[in-house]
Specification:
about 300 residues; alpha+beta; D-amino Acid Aminotransferase, Chain A, domain 1; D-amino Acid Aminotransferase, Chain A, domain 2; 2 domains; nine-stranded mixed beta sheet; eight-stranded antiparallel beta sheet; 17 strands; about 25% helix; binds pyridoxal-5'-phosphate
Length: about 300
């Protein structure tokens, strides 16, 4: 979101306030220890309608993340969902946007014992967002940094602190001239692909899609799940299985999935072309199907869209 202007009103502990008035003290626990749970959600603007994609799934994951760290989310799922749609309405957003709801520990001294009694805040802000990467294909490198494993911190909790791993891997990739990093797992799976700093990874081999299992420390991504559903419903073979570094390099096609990145083709890995170096047939088909779903053109998935207006 570098450079993107955050919409004027934010949601803070149940109220919509101007963004410059939503302030927290320097002692805020989350600043020091990364004790925040967050989500990234997209809303799509189409023919005069704004719709949030898989809102309920994101809100449920937010609650699960906070719970994993005994942090109390002091609002019901319905209230958080209403905060997201209400934020879009309050800001009169009439373009594609990204919404970031989060929950964080406020005043808790320097204690590392976070319990349900710790003070927490909930907030959300929104900003306009088009495509994160161009649709033509990006370059990726296998990072020298490994994805943390469940033996370190829970991989399924989307916590602020976890993203230091993503930040250092991204810097490493950019320094090496690539658009994105791919991290290998550091758990018992060893040399296998885990995920990218903020996206899941898919490969295509012989027309068949594959993505790493959660046991490779990959996040249970909502876009990943959407792609697996698209494959199932369209009769395309897809499997969740370990992917070695060699299989990644030998893939016919590869792509990333994520709320922000949507479906992003990877056309180079470690400097070498993936397949023929162009966006492949399977990737293009998934991109098309995904775009139809999020933009409301495929009514079979209408239940995944929450109308704002
Ligand atoms: C580490 C990581 N992996 C994968 C994803 C993709 O998840 P989703 O499709 O739910 O956005 C994200 C984004 O939330 C992420 O931060």
């Amino acid at each position: 979101m570098e450079g993107a202007e955050v919409a004027r009103f934010v949601w803070f502990d149940g109220r919509f306030v101007r963004r410059e008035r939503a302030l927290v003290p320097l002692t805020t626990h989350a600043i020091h220890y990364g004790t925040s749970a967050f989500e990234g959600i997209r809303a799509y603007w189409n023919s005069g309608q704004l719709s949030v994609f898989r809102l309920g799934d994101h809100v449920r994951r937010l609650r699960r993340s906070a719970r994993r760290y005994s942090m109390r989310l002091r609002f019901t799922d319905a209230q958080v969902a209403e905060a997201v749609t209400g934020l879009c309405r309050k800001n009169r957003i009439r373009e594609p946007c990204y919404v970031r709801p989060f929950c964080f520990v406020g005043r808790h001294g320097i204690s590392l014992d976070v319990t349900g009694a710790a003070e927490t805040h909930a907030a959300a802000f929104a900003f306009p967002m088009g495509r994160l990467f161009g649709g033509g294909g990006i370059s990726a490198v296998v990072s020298r940094w490994r994805k943390f494993s469940d033996a370190t911190t829970p991989t399924q909790a989307k916590m602020g602190g976890n993203y230091l791993n993503s930040i250092i891997a991204t810097r490493d990739a950019r320094r090496r001239g690539a658009d994105e990093a791919i991290l290998l797992d550091s758990g018992s799976g060893g040399e296998c692909v885990s995920e990218a700093p903020g996206e899941n990874v898919f490969i295509v081999k012989g027309g068949r899609l594959a993505t790493p299992p959660l046991s490779s420390s990959a996040l249970d991504g909502i876009t990943r799940d959407t792609v697996l559903r698209i494959a199932k419903d369209s009769g395309r073979r897809a499997e969740v299985r370990r992917i070695t570094r060699r299989q990644l390099r030998g893939a016919d096609e590869a792509f990333l999935t994520g709320t922000a990145a949507e479906i992003t083709p990877i056309t180079r890995i470690d400097g070498a072309k993936v397949g023929d170096g162009k966006v492949g047939e399977a990737t293009a088909a998934v991109m098309g199907a995904y775009s139809d779903i999020v933009n409301g053109r495929d009514r079979r998935y209408a239940r995944w869209l929450t109308g704002v207006y």
